[in-house]
Design a protein that fits this description.
This protein is mostly helical. The chain has 20 helices and two strands.
């Protein structure tokens, strides 16, 4: 049957828009989980006061989310490569929403720990799912930009978890604010149900998939290219893990002598920088057809910006600019996901990308606890209205791990092979 030009044009329009609709719908899960993962920057003092705990135990509550995430990431990639992506991430999202409602009502610190563990388990699929869908709906040459767009969705959630959540907590209390987050998750779950469409994998990939679990692990988890890229992303993400996800607002209160709400605005700008930096750096990498050069520019620029943030006297306005730039240039970490996807077999995309996610999310556990350990051991804590308060000297000592991490990120690039935006392994 002959198609009219109007029908063909309409069909091409649908084909060009549908991949974005699918990936956008799946990315809502990532958006929601970044609210979950970063909300402790806004409610840390409320949590410490309500459960009568110090910064070290509060870091347990924050980091157990990432511990659970890492544990389940080891199987999440294998599950997504084998089963329906839509069904898998819908079940995972449901677990996250239910555990949010339970935590809002928790009266015990240990019940809250269990809720955070369950949420972290579900979130193991929040990034791999969209990346798995993107790898089937988009060609490899567009993966850096698409990955940047997916990360942008997540950073929007991280930004929402800063000043807007701080205001909501001030008005309603942290428990009612969590209930509102649970209601938001319920709406997102419905949107995901309508928007996500599984795309059948090619016959060639089905034949490739007949590979043993042990061989899969060897090909993915022992791949030097994948491991170097994963360590780069993990170290580049350290500022988000420490400032954005846990302690940035409280640090800025001491650093600038401003209110908690003013500090949360600055901290949220870190995510605004990443929101714009992710897709722009991804587009730049795709346009150049290079992966390593933008990654090097990102880490070197981030290093010098971070030194200014930590040690030079700056105004509130200039600190906002610096936090924006830090978020923008550390977003170069998203190129690692495209590089890993291009360096791996098409049948193992989710499993390979899961290695990057494991080290990034595992970094949250390690960096947050190292930071908290240095903070609490420095010995200048005071109690103010039942809440622990730490000095600027405490924060600056603990924050030394951030520039050290960026130096390690630069060295992680050594030995990486350039993919030139093409699939190297078939």
């Amino acid at each position: 049957m002959l198609m009219t030009p109007e029908y063909r044009q309409s069909n091409r329009f649908v084909e060009s828009i549908l991949p974005w609709v699918v990936c956008f719908s799946a990315s809502l899960f990532f958006f929601y989980e970044f609210i979950q993962g970063n909300m402790f920057a806004s409610i840390a003092d409320n949590i410490m006061h309500d459960f009568n705990i110090r910064a070290d135990r509060m870091s347990y509550l924050s980091s157990i989310y990432y511990l659970s995430n890492v544990l389940f990431l080891f199987v999440a990639g294998l599950i997504l490569d084998k089963y329906s992506t839509k069904k898998t991430i819908m079940v995972a999202m449901l677990l996250c929403v239910l555990s949010t409602f339970v935590m809002a009502c928790a009266q015990s610190f240990y019940v809250a720990l269990v809720c955070r563990f369950v949420t972290g388990a579900g979130s193991a699929f929040c990034f791999l799912g969209p990346i798995r869908l993107a790898s089937r709906w988009f060609p490899p040459r567009r993966m850096a930009m698409v990955t940047g767009a997916i990360v942008t969705m997540a950073m929007t959630g991280g930004m929402l978890a800063q000043y807007p959540l701080t205001k909501l907590v001030a008005q309603l209390g942290w428990r009612e604010a969590l209930m509102q987050i649970g209601y938001l998750g319920s709406v997102i779950l419905v949107l995901m149900g309508f928007g996500i469409i599984d795309k059948a994998r090619p016959v060639r990939i089905k034949r490739e998939k007949k590979i043993s679990l042990l061989l899969t692990a060897q090909k993915v988890y022992l791949n030097p290219q994948t491991l170097r890229a994963a360590f780069y992303s993990s170290f580049m993400n350290m500022a988000i893990a420490v400032f954005g996800a846990m302690i940035g607002t409280l640090y800025l209160v001491q650093r600038l002598g401003v209110t908690k709400e003013q500090a949360s605005v600055v901290n949220s700008i870190l995510f605004l920088g990443a929101i714009l930096g992710g897709p722009m750096i991804g587009w730049f990498s795709d346009k150049l057809g290079l992966r390593l050069l933008p990654m090097k520019i990102g880490v070197l620029t981030s290093f010098f910006i971070l030194l200014i943030i930590l040690f030079l006297p700056v105004s509130l306005f200039f600190m906002k600019i610096l936090f924006f730039l830090l978020g923008f240039f550390t977003a170069a970490q998203i190129i690692s996901y495209a590089l890993v996807a291009e360096s791996s077999s098409s049948a193992l995309t989710a499993t390979a990308v899961s290695v990057v996610s494991i080290l990034v999310q595992g970094g949250y556990i390690f960096y947050q606890n190292i930071f908290s350990m240095l903070l609490t051991k420095h010995g200048e804590m005071q109690m103010l209205n039942g809440t622990p308060v730490y000095s600027l000297g405490d924060y600056q000592l603990a924050a030394l791990i951030l520039p050290i991490g960026l130096v390690l990120a630069f060295f992680a690039l050594t030995g990486l092979k350039e993919t030139y935006g093409r699939q190297l392994e078939r």
